[in-house]
Amino acid sequence: MAAPIQVSVVVPVYNEEESLPQLHAEIAAALGGMDVSWEVVYVDDGSRDRSLGVLLALWRADPHVRVVKFPRNYGQTSALSAGFEVCRGDVVITMDGDLQNDPADIPRLVAEIEKGNDIVAGWRKQRRDGFVLRRLPSVIANRLITVVTGVHIHDTGCTLKAFRGTLVKNLPIYGDQHRFLPVMSAGSGARVTEIVVNHRPRVYGQSKYGLGRATRVLLDLISVKLITQFSQRPLQYFGMLALGFTGLAACFVLIGIVGISFGAVDPSGWNLGRWEMIIFSNAILLIMLIVFFALLGLLGELAVKASGMHRRGVLDRILNELH
Questions:
Q1: Are residue 28 and residue 119 in the same domain, yes or no?
Q2: Which residue range(s) make up the domain with 265?
Q3: Is the pTM of this model over 0.90?
Q4: Are residues 72 and 182 in the same domain?
C-alpha cells in the first residue's frame, strides 16, 4: 500500500509550459521544509502548448509528481474536481499554475487547517492585476456573492485555498463553481476562514479569464444559492413564488371587479371587451400558476423527506460542532 500523504497540492494547468519548472521548484521548496509527506497533482486541462511534455518530465524526475491529462479543455472546475478525486492528502491545497499564487504561503494555509478549520481561503489583498478588467469585476462579484449567500469571503476567485481532504471528496462541483467551494461548505456547517496571501504579477503568458466569465459566475451563483438553501426548504421557495403570483392575480381580479362596479363590464351577458378578456385570462393563468407552484413545493418536500436530506443536514451540523 502507498504511504499516507499529509499534504496534496492540486494544480490545474492550461498552456503554462514556461512557468511550470519554476512553479514546481517553489512548491517542492515550500513542502520540503515542512517535514510532511506530500504530492503534487498536476491536471493538464487540454493544453495546446508543451505543458504536458514539461509535466511528464517533472513526473519522471520527481516521485512526488502525479499527472492527470484531459483530452480537451474542460475548464478549471473540472480540472480541480479531477485532482480532488485522485489526490490522497489529509490537507489539499489548490493553486493556479501561472506563478501568481505564491507556494511560500502553503505552510501558513496548512497551519490554519491544523488549528481546526475545514477550509482556508486565500485573500489577494494586494492584487497585481489590471483594475478595469480584473480587480473591479472581482470586487463587484465578491460583494454580490456575500449579499446573496450570507458568507463573507473577501476573495472567492482566489484559487489558492486549503481544504480538509475528507471535505473535498464529498463536494460535487461543475460549471465554474470552484470559486464557491467555501460558500457551499459553509452552508453545511464547515468552519471557513481566510488569510491574506501574496499575489505576484504575471510573468509568462496571458490570463485565461475575461469579462465573459461574469455571466457564468452569475448563473453559478444562482445555482449554488438553490443547492445550498433550496434543497433543505423547497416548499418555502416555491411558496414565495406562489405568493408573488397570488399578488399579481389579486391585482387583475381587483381591476376586473372595479370594471364591473363602474359598468365597464356586463357580467350578466358576458359582454367582455378586449382588455377585459386579457385581464380575466391573466387572472385565471396566474391562479393556475399558484396551484402549480404550491403542488411543486409539496412534491419537493416529499422528495427531500424521502431522500433523508434533512436528517443528513442536521447530522452534518452536529458532527461539525463536535469536530
A1: yes
A2: 233-322
A3: no
A4: yes
